[in-house]
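[job 4417] fold queue: 2 targets
>>> target A
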Amino acid sequence: MVWDFGNVIVRWSPATLYKKIFPDPLEREAFLARVCPLDWHAATDRGRTFTENCAERIARYPEHAEAITAWRTRWWEMFSGPIPETEAAIEAAHAAGVPQFGLSNISHETLAGTMALSPAFGRLQAVVASGLEGVMKPEPAIYQLACERFGLAPEEMMFVDDSAANVAGARALGFHVHHFTDPAALGPALRAHGLF
Protein backbone atom coordinates (compact mmCIF):
# COMPACT_ATOMS: atom_id res chain seq x y z
CA MET A 1 0.00 0.00 0.00
CA VAL A 2 1.20 3.49 -0.91
CA TRP A 3 -0.74 6.36 0.62
CA ASP A 4 -1.07 10.01 -0.26
CA PHE A 5 -1.48 12.23 2.82
CA GLY A 6 -3.71 15.27 2.31
CA ASN A 7 -7.41 14.44 1.89
CA VAL A 8 -6.60 10.73 2.08
CA ILE A 9 -5.25 10.25 5.62
CA VAL A 10 -5.96 13.75 6.97
CA ARG A 11 -8.43 16.39 5.77
CA TRP A 12 -6.77 19.56 4.45
CA SER A 13 -8.32 22.60 2.82
CA PRO A 14 -7.18 26.25 2.75
CA ALA A 15 -10.86 27.19 3.02
CA THR A 16 -10.93 25.76 6.55
CA LEU A 17 -8.59 28.56 7.63
CA TYR A 18 -9.75 31.29 5.28
CA LYS A 19 -13.39 30.98 6.35
CA LYS A 20 -12.17 32.64 9.54
CA ILE A 21 -10.36 35.42 7.68
CA PHE A 22 -12.92 36.01 4.92
CA PRO A 23 -16.40 35.17 6.24
CA ASP A 24 -17.92 36.29 2.94
CA PRO A 25 -17.72 33.25 0.61
CA LEU A 26 -17.31 35.30 -2.56
CA GLU A 27 -14.45 37.30 -1.07
CA ARG A 28 -12.84 34.09 0.21
CA GLU A 29 -13.16 32.28 -3.11
CA ALA A 30 -11.71 35.27 -4.97
CA PHE A 31 -8.72 35.39 -2.63
CA LEU A 32 -8.02 31.66 -2.95
CA ALA A 33 -8.44 31.73 -6.72
CA ARG A 34 -6.34 34.83 -7.42
CA VAL A 35 -3.99 35.61 -4.53
CA CYS A 36 -3.19 32.21 -2.98
CA PRO A 37 -4.19 29.53 -5.52
CA LEU A 38 -3.01 25.96 -5.18
CA ASP A 39 -0.62 26.25 -8.11
CA TRP A 40 1.20 29.02 -6.19
CA HIS A 41 1.38 26.82 -3.08
CA ALA A 42 2.86 23.99 -5.16
CA ALA A 43 6.25 25.72 -5.01
CA THR A 44 6.50 24.82 -1.31
CA ASP A 45 5.67 21.20 -2.16
CA ARG A 46 8.67 21.30 -4.48
CA GLY A 47 11.00 22.55 -1.75
CA ARG A 48 10.63 26.33 -1.54
CA THR A 49 10.20 27.67 1.98
CA PHE A 50 6.89 29.11 3.13
CA THR A 51 8.69 32.37 3.99
CA GLU A 52 10.08 32.73 0.47
CA ASN A 53 6.80 31.79 -1.17
CA CYS A 54 4.72 34.16 0.94
CA ALA A 55 7.20 37.04 0.51
CA GLU A 56 6.88 36.76 -3.26
CA ARG A 57 3.11 36.90 -3.01
CA ILE A 58 3.07 39.81 -0.55
CA ALA A 59 5.24 41.81 -2.94
CA ARG A 60 2.64 41.19 -5.63
CA TYR A 61 -0.44 41.71 -3.45
CA PRO A 62 0.65 44.00 -0.57
CA GLU A 63 -2.97 44.82 0.26
CA HIS A 64 -3.38 41.16 1.31
CA ALA A 65 -0.16 40.90 3.32
CA GLU A 66 -1.85 39.77 6.53
CA ALA A 67 -3.99 37.12 4.86
CA ILE A 68 -1.05 35.81 2.83
CA THR A 69 1.13 35.61 5.94
CA ALA A 70 -1.59 33.49 7.57
CA TRP A 71 -0.85 30.79 4.99
CA ARG A 72 2.46 30.31 6.81
CA THR A 73 1.69 31.29 10.41
CA ARG A 74 -1.74 29.61 10.65
CA TRP A 75 -1.05 26.65 8.33
CA TRP A 76 -2.26 24.04 10.81
CA GLU A 77 -5.71 25.63 10.88
CA MET A 78 -6.20 24.28 7.34
CA PHE A 79 -6.48 20.75 8.76
CA SER A 80 -9.71 19.33 10.16
CA GLY A 81 -8.56 15.98 11.47
CA PRO A 82 -7.84 12.48 10.24
CA ILE A 83 -10.20 10.48 8.02
CA PRO A 84 -11.47 7.55 10.13
CA GLU A 85 -12.11 5.22 7.19
CA THR A 86 -8.51 5.59 6.04
CA GLU A 87 -7.14 5.09 9.54
CA ALA A 88 -9.22 1.90 9.78
CA ALA A 89 -7.94 0.68 6.40
CA ILE A 90 -4.33 1.34 7.40
CA GLU A 91 -4.83 -0.61 10.63
CA ALA A 92 -6.51 -3.49 8.75
CA ALA A 93 -3.66 -3.63 6.22
CA HIS A 94 -1.14 -3.56 9.06
CA ALA A 95 -2.93 -6.42 10.82
CA ALA A 96 -2.85 -8.37 7.55
CA GLY A 97 0.93 -7.85 7.29
CA VAL A 98 0.77 -5.60 4.21
CA PRO A 99 3.79 -3.26 3.95
CA GLN A 100 2.69 0.39 3.81
CA PHE A 101 4.43 3.51 2.56
CA GLY A 102 3.73 7.20 1.96
CA LEU A 103 4.06 9.24 -1.24
CA SER A 104 3.00 12.85 -0.82
CA ASN A 105 3.35 16.26 -2.40
CA ILE A 106 4.25 18.04 0.83
CA SER A 107 6.64 20.70 2.08
CA HIS A 108 9.72 19.58 3.94
CA GLU A 109 8.72 22.17 6.57
CA THR A 110 5.34 20.57 7.31
CA LEU A 111 6.15 16.87 6.87
CA ALA A 112 6.84 16.01 10.50
CA GLY A 113 3.89 18.03 11.80
CA THR A 114 1.52 16.41 9.33
CA MET A 115 2.69 12.94 10.29
CA ALA A 116 1.95 13.78 13.93
CA LEU A 117 -1.75 14.35 13.14
CA SER A 118 -2.69 10.65 13.13
CA PRO A 119 -1.21 7.47 14.60
CA ALA A 120 -1.86 5.88 11.20
CA PHE A 121 1.29 7.58 9.88
CA GLY A 122 3.26 5.42 12.30
CA ARG A 123 2.34 2.35 10.23
CA LEU A 124 4.25 3.68 7.18
CA GLN A 125 7.61 2.01 6.74
CA ALA A 126 9.05 4.76 4.54
CA VAL A 127 7.93 8.02 2.96
CA VAL A 128 8.81 9.86 -0.24
CA ALA A 129 8.00 13.56 0.22
CA SER A 130 8.16 15.92 -2.76
CA GLY A 131 9.56 18.82 -0.72
CA LEU A 132 12.62 16.75 0.20
CA GLU A 133 13.12 15.38 -3.31
CA GLY A 134 12.43 18.41 -5.54
CA VAL A 135 10.07 16.40 -7.75
CA MET A 136 6.30 16.08 -7.52
CA LYS A 137 3.39 13.88 -8.48
CA PRO A 138 2.30 13.29 -11.19
CA GLU A 139 5.84 13.52 -12.63
CA PRO A 140 7.10 10.00 -13.43
CA ALA A 141 10.38 10.56 -11.59
CA ILE A 142 8.76 10.65 -8.14
CA TYR A 143 6.96 7.33 -8.71
CA GLN A 144 10.20 5.80 -9.95
CA LEU A 145 11.97 7.13 -6.87
CA ALA A 146 9.28 5.57 -4.68
CA CYS A 147 9.85 2.20 -6.36
CA GLU A 148 13.59 2.43 -5.66
CA ARG A 149 13.11 3.65 -2.08
CA PHE A 150 10.49 1.02 -1.24
CA GLY A 151 12.24 -1.80 -3.10
CA LEU A 152 9.11 -2.76 -5.04
CA ALA A 153 7.95 -2.81 -8.66
CA PRO A 154 4.91 -0.69 -9.60
CA GLU A 155 2.74 -3.75 -10.17
CA GLU A 156 3.43 -4.85 -6.58
CA MET A 157 1.87 -1.68 -5.12
CA MET A 158 -1.61 -0.22 -4.64
CA PHE A 159 -1.48 3.59 -4.71
CA VAL A 160 -4.25 5.68 -3.12
CA ASP A 161 -4.57 9.39 -3.93
CA ASP A 162 -7.38 11.96 -4.10
CA SER A 163 -5.97 13.62 -7.25
CA ALA A 164 -7.11 12.18 -10.57
CA ALA A 165 -3.89 13.41 -12.21
CA ASN A 166 -1.72 11.70 -9.61
CA VAL A 167 -3.68 8.47 -9.93
CA ALA A 168 -3.33 8.59 -13.72
CA GLY A 169 0.42 9.17 -13.39
CA ALA A 170 0.81 6.12 -11.19
CA ARG A 171 -1.44 3.96 -13.38
CA ALA A 172 0.62 4.85 -16.46
CA LEU A 173 3.69 3.37 -14.77
CA GLY A 174 1.93 0.13 -13.82
CA PHE A 175 0.73 0.77 -10.26
CA HIS A 176 -2.58 -0.58 -9.06
CA VAL A 177 -4.55 2.52 -8.10
CA HIS A 178 -7.54 3.71 -6.14
CA HIS A 179 -8.87 7.23 -6.73
CA PHE A 180 -9.94 8.36 -3.26
CA THR A 181 -13.16 10.34 -3.62
CA ASP A 182 -15.46 8.67 -1.08
CA PRO A 183 -14.03 7.46 2.25
CA ALA A 184 -16.73 4.80 2.51
CA ALA A 185 -15.57 3.23 -0.76
CA LEU A 186 -11.97 2.74 0.37
CA GLY A 187 -12.33 -0.41 2.50
CA PRO A 188 -14.44 -2.32 -0.03
CA ALA A 189 -12.03 -1.41 -2.84
CA LEU A 190 -8.99 -2.64 -0.92
CA ARG A 191 -10.77 -5.82 0.18
CA ALA A 192 -11.65 -6.45 -3.48
CA HIS A 193 -7.92 -6.40 -4.22
CA GLY A 194 -7.29 -8.91 -1.42
CA LEU A 195 -5.29 -6.48 0.72
CA PHE A 196 -7.10 -7.41 3.93
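>>> target B
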Amino acid sequence: MQKAADEDKVVLVSYGAEWCIWCHVLNAYLAGEKTKFDYVYADPSAPDEIYEATLYEREKRDMSDEASALNAFVRDHFVVVHIDYFFAPNGDRVLETSGALEHLGDGIPFVFAVSASGKFRAVVDTDLAETRRDEDFDWYRGYDRTKLLSSLKRAYQAALQ
Protein backbone atom coordinates (compact mmCIF):
# COMPACT_ATOMS: atom_id res chain seq x y z
CA MET A 1 0.00 0.00 0.00
CA GLN A 2 2.83 2.37 0.83
CA LYS A 3 4.65 1.71 -2.44
CA ALA A 4 1.43 2.36 -4.39
CA ALA A 5 0.89 5.61 -2.50
CA ASP A 6 4.50 6.71 -3.07
CA GLU A 7 4.23 5.98 -6.80
CA ASP A 8 0.67 7.31 -7.20
CA LYS A 9 -0.57 3.88 -8.30
CA VAL A 10 -3.27 1.40 -7.39
CA VAL A 11 -2.71 -1.98 -5.73
CA LEU A 12 -3.73 -4.89 -7.95
CA VAL A 13 -3.99 -8.18 -6.06
CA SER A 14 -3.53 -11.45 -7.92
CA TYR A 15 -4.76 -14.24 -5.64
CA GLY A 16 -3.78 -17.59 -7.12
CA ALA A 17 -1.76 -20.74 -6.68
CA GLU A 18 1.62 -22.04 -7.68
CA TRP A 19 0.05 -24.96 -9.56
CA CYS A 20 -2.43 -22.78 -11.50
CA ILE A 21 -1.45 -22.43 -15.15
CA TRP A 22 -3.88 -19.54 -15.64
CA CYS A 23 -2.14 -17.66 -12.81
CA HIS A 24 1.34 -18.15 -14.29
CA VAL A 25 0.25 -17.12 -17.77
CA LEU A 26 -1.64 -14.09 -16.42
CA ASN A 27 1.49 -12.94 -14.62
CA ALA A 28 3.49 -13.32 -17.84
CA TYR A 29 0.88 -11.32 -19.76
CA LEU A 30 0.97 -8.53 -17.17
CA ALA A 31 4.77 -8.48 -17.52
CA GLY A 32 4.50 -8.06 -21.30
CA GLU A 33 5.50 -11.54 -22.42
CA LYS A 34 4.11 -12.45 -25.82
CA THR A 35 5.67 -15.71 -26.97
CA LYS A 36 7.02 -18.00 -24.24
CA PHE A 37 5.58 -18.87 -20.84
CA ASP A 38 7.51 -20.85 -18.25
CA TYR A 39 5.25 -22.80 -15.93
CA VAL A 40 6.93 -23.98 -12.72
CA TYR A 41 4.78 -25.44 -9.98
CA ALA A 42 4.52 -27.83 -7.05
CA ASP A 43 1.64 -29.62 -5.40
CA PRO A 44 0.97 -28.44 -1.82
CA SER A 45 0.99 -32.08 -0.64
CA ALA A 46 4.53 -32.53 -2.05
CA PRO A 47 6.10 -29.06 -2.21
CA ASP A 48 9.60 -30.38 -2.87
CA GLU A 49 8.55 -32.05 -6.12
CA ILE A 50 8.90 -29.32 -8.73
CA TYR A 51 7.31 -29.60 -12.17
CA GLU A 52 8.26 -27.45 -15.13
CA ALA A 53 6.77 -26.82 -18.55
CA THR A 54 7.23 -24.18 -21.24
CA LEU A 55 4.27 -23.04 -23.27
CA TYR A 56 4.54 -21.19 -26.56
CA GLU A 57 1.94 -18.80 -27.87
CA ARG A 58 0.98 -19.50 -31.48
CA GLU A 59 -0.94 -16.47 -32.62
CA LYS A 60 -1.72 -15.96 -36.29
CA ARG A 61 -0.52 -12.36 -36.08
CA ASP A 62 2.09 -10.33 -34.25
CA MET A 63 0.87 -9.55 -30.73
CA SER A 64 3.66 -7.08 -29.87
CA ASP A 65 1.45 -3.98 -29.83
CA GLU A 66 -1.21 -5.56 -27.60
CA ALA A 67 1.43 -7.06 -25.27
CA SER A 68 3.25 -3.73 -24.99
CA ALA A 69 0.03 -1.79 -24.32
CA LEU A 70 -1.06 -4.24 -21.61
CA ASN A 71 2.35 -4.21 -19.93
CA ALA A 72 2.64 -0.41 -20.10
CA PHE A 73 -0.77 0.09 -18.51
CA VAL A 74 0.02 -2.32 -15.68
CA ARG A 75 3.50 -0.84 -15.14
CA ASP A 76 2.23 2.76 -15.14
CA HIS A 77 -0.91 2.30 -13.04
CA PHE A 78 -0.50 -0.66 -10.65
CA VAL A 79 1.64 -2.17 -7.96
CA VAL A 80 0.92 -5.88 -8.42
CA VAL A 81 0.77 -8.08 -5.31
CA HIS A 82 0.78 -11.85 -5.77
CA ILE A 83 -0.78 -14.00 -3.05
CA ASP A 84 -0.54 -17.78 -3.20
CA TYR A 85 -3.48 -19.16 -1.27
CA PHE A 86 -1.59 -22.30 -0.20
CA PHE A 87 1.70 -20.72 0.80
CA ALA A 88 1.07 -17.05 1.73
CA PRO A 89 0.85 -16.88 5.53
CA ASN A 90 -1.76 -14.10 5.65
CA GLY A 91 -3.42 -14.38 2.25
CA ASP A 92 -6.88 -15.06 3.63
CA ARG A 93 -6.55 -12.09 5.96
CA VAL A 94 -5.93 -9.80 2.98
CA LEU A 95 -9.17 -11.02 1.40
CA GLU A 96 -11.09 -10.53 4.64
CA THR A 97 -9.77 -7.09 5.61
CA SER A 98 -10.07 -5.69 2.09
CA GLY A 99 -13.64 -6.93 1.71
CA ALA A 100 -12.69 -8.99 -1.35
CA LEU A 101 -13.62 -12.35 0.19
CA GLU A 102 -17.31 -11.91 -0.59
CA HIS A 103 -16.41 -11.44 -4.28
CA LEU A 104 -14.23 -14.56 -4.53
CA GLY A 105 -15.73 -16.97 -7.03
CA ASP A 106 -14.98 -20.61 -7.65
CA GLY A 107 -11.77 -20.21 -9.66
CA ILE A 108 -8.40 -18.58 -9.69
CA PRO A 109 -6.72 -16.35 -10.46
CA PHE A 110 -8.88 -13.95 -8.50
CA VAL A 111 -7.61 -10.51 -9.47
CA PHE A 112 -8.92 -7.34 -7.90
CA ALA A 113 -8.08 -3.70 -7.29
CA VAL A 114 -8.30 -1.91 -3.96
CA SER A 115 -8.72 1.72 -3.01
CA ALA A 116 -5.94 3.80 -1.46
CA SER A 117 -7.25 2.71 1.96
CA GLY A 118 -7.02 -0.97 0.99
CA LYS A 119 -10.71 -1.63 0.43
CA PHE A 120 -12.01 -3.82 -2.40
CA ARG A 121 -13.16 -1.83 -5.44
CA ALA A 122 -13.35 -4.10 -8.51
CA VAL A 123 -12.69 -7.55 -9.92
CA VAL A 124 -10.60 -7.93 -13.06
CA ASP A 125 -12.71 -10.36 -15.08
CA THR A 126 -10.08 -12.86 -16.22
CA ASP A 127 -12.76 -15.43 -17.14
CA LEU A 128 -14.09 -13.10 -19.82
CA ALA A 129 -10.62 -12.73 -21.31
CA GLU A 130 -9.62 -16.43 -21.31
CA THR A 131 -8.79 -18.28 -24.53
CA ARG A 132 -7.82 -21.89 -24.95
CA ARG A 133 -6.39 -24.15 -27.62
CA ASP A 134 -5.87 -27.90 -27.37
CA GLU A 135 -3.91 -29.77 -30.00
CA ASP A 136 -2.46 -33.13 -29.00
CA PHE A 137 0.22 -32.47 -26.38
CA ASP A 138 1.19 -29.01 -27.60
CA TRP A 139 -1.44 -26.93 -25.81
CA TYR A 140 -1.58 -23.38 -24.65
CA ARG A 141 -3.88 -21.35 -22.46
CA GLY A 142 -3.93 -17.59 -22.55
CA TYR A 143 -5.91 -14.39 -22.51
CA ASP A 144 -7.31 -11.97 -25.03
CA ARG A 145 -5.10 -8.98 -24.27
CA THR A 146 -7.62 -6.39 -25.47
CA LYS A 147 -10.35 -7.75 -23.17
CA LEU A 148 -7.90 -8.08 -20.28
CA LEU A 149 -6.69 -4.49 -20.73
CA SER A 150 -10.27 -3.24 -20.82
CA SER A 151 -11.07 -5.02 -17.55
CA LEU A 152 -7.89 -3.66 -15.94
CA LYS A 153 -8.83 -0.12 -16.98
CA ARG A 154 -12.27 -0.50 -15.39
CA ALA A 155 -10.74 -1.84 -12.17
CA TYR A 156 -8.24 1.02 -12.08
CA GLN A 157 -10.97 3.64 -12.44
CA ALA A 158 -13.06 1.97 -9.75
CA ALA A 159 -10.09 1.93 -7.36
CA LEU A 160 -9.68 5.71 -7.73
CA GLN A 161 -13.20 6.39 -6.49
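[job 4417] complete. Note on B: DSSP finds six helices and eight strands in the chain.
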